[in-house]
Amino acid sequence: xxxxxxxxxxxxxxxxxxxxxxxxxxxLKKGDATAGALLIVCAxxxxxxxxxxxxxxxxxxxWESVGPxxxxxxxxxxxxxxxxxxxxxxxxxxxxxxxxxAAETIGDA
Length: 109
What we know:
By secondary structure, this protein is an alpha+beta fold. The protein has 3 helices and 5 strands; from the N terminus they run H-E-E-E-E-H-E-H. It has helices at 7-20, 71-84, 98-106, and strands spanning 24-29, 38-44, 47-57, 60-66, 89-94. A 5-stranded mixed sheet has the order 1-5-2-3-4, sandwiched between helices. Helix 1 packs across helix 3.
């Protein structure tokens, strides 16, 4: 078994990197510090562009687009996801190319 960084460490690194690049990052919901799943709300200038989830596939971790497109439906969807998985981290990144920041910082394609 290989060691891996905890969810709290990954989120902390992502928040610091986005802030260092001039963007804003906020932890909307804290999950399990050790192994909670990560959900990234990608925004640019306050407008949500997509929601991405870190999923484990056959070739390792990747970011998959999830959730409804509509902002009106998104809040309810996020609450239902958290109700089903209280270990889930929800982090909003407000920076151009938020998906790229997440992939580069956490090391996923």
